[in-house]
Amino acid sequence: MQIMETTFLGNRVMDYLIALLVLFLGLLVMKIVVRVAIKYLKAWAQKSVTTLDDFIVNILERIFLPVAYLSCFYLSIKTLTLSEFVGKAVNAIEMIILTFFVTRLLAMIISYGINMYLERRQEDPTLVRSLEGVLKVSRFLLWALAVIVLLDNLGYKVSTLLAGLGIGGVAVAIAAQTLLKDFFSYFSIVFDRPFKIGDFIIIGDFMGTVEYIGIKTTRIRSLGGEQVVFSNTDLTDSRVRNYKLMEQRRVLFRLGVTHQTSLDQLKEIPKIIENIVRNTQGTRFDRAHFFSYGDFSLIIEVVYFVLNPDYNKYMDIQQEINFAIKAEFEKRGIEFAYPTQTLYVNKTA
Fold first, then answer.
1. pLDDT reported for residue 65
2. pTM across the whole model
3. Which CATH number applies to 186-242?
């Protein structure tokens, strides 16, 4: 038994055997208990319809299990008497590993939260592409914060570094003010959702279908075929009309008849137009009135609703109504007005 008392690198042989025994027992427990538990949980998760249990099993496999195995090594090493240098090295490695897995766990939770948000918004699958930038930025910020916390725990003076980064950050922020405004406008577009990819929108004199929503710019395919690029700030600062969200279209149009139209014909015109609109499928009649006296015509104003937001459908219905009005007016001898001018000549001797 004298060999058990032999000292090597500050520890007896017996101490090394105890460390190995602790390591063996720890690994055995992990092998039996944890593996069996994870196997049981996997079988349970497959029967469940929710995704939360699958997420928990994933965390156990990718986070808890590696940390448990590494903890066995750490506990076995801590049973030994270590030199100051080796002890600090072991503690530093422990801190690095712990920070890595905690940060990875938080990143998984953020990713799962975003995926659950997208799952609830199944009517908009294109939102996935828009939120990729959000996920990348959040991961970058999370890992940057983790590195700062790790350096602080390892004894480095992070405050000096942060002060230098703060001064430099102010300079960069001033230089990149427009870029940052576009970046925050991107978050506003993604989460407030005034429009999404595939929507037909109008901004000022420009109109088209949204093709891409990026961190800095949004791209729209115009009716002429060209791509119009807007900065995100321009869009959030402008009045955007989104026709994709329109449930029905209100239509107002005017037509003019000649001043020679009789009073009886003029009274009959609103009823004619009302009958035409009511008999046109996909419309809801609102009103038709003799609106005003024009320079060349008597003006009739008509308002109705198209019960479909599609622009081509609206044009088909308007054309059908125009044909019907033309036919009825010709049948009743009612003439449309056109610009005319009467010249009176006064003869003088």
1. 76
2. 0.52
3. 2.30.30.60
